[in-house]
Amino acid sequence: MKQLSTCTRRLALSLAAAAGLALVAPAQAQSGYPNKPIRMIVPLGAGSAVDVAARLLAQKMSENMGQAIVVENITGASGIIGADRLAKSAPDGYTIGGFNDSVLTMVPNLNSKTPFNPVTDFAHISQVATIEFSVAVPADSKYKTAAELVAAAKAAPGQITYASGGNGSPQHLGGALFAAHTGIDIKHVPYRDASQAAQGVAGNQVDMTVQGIATVAALAKGGKLRLVGVMADSRQPEYPDTMTLKEQGIQGFDFSTWFALTAPKGTPKEILERLQREVVKALADPMVKERYAGLGLKPNGTTPEQLTALVGSQLARYGKAIRDNNIKAE
Question: pLDDT tens digits for 250-259?
Answer without folding.
Answer: 999 989 999 9
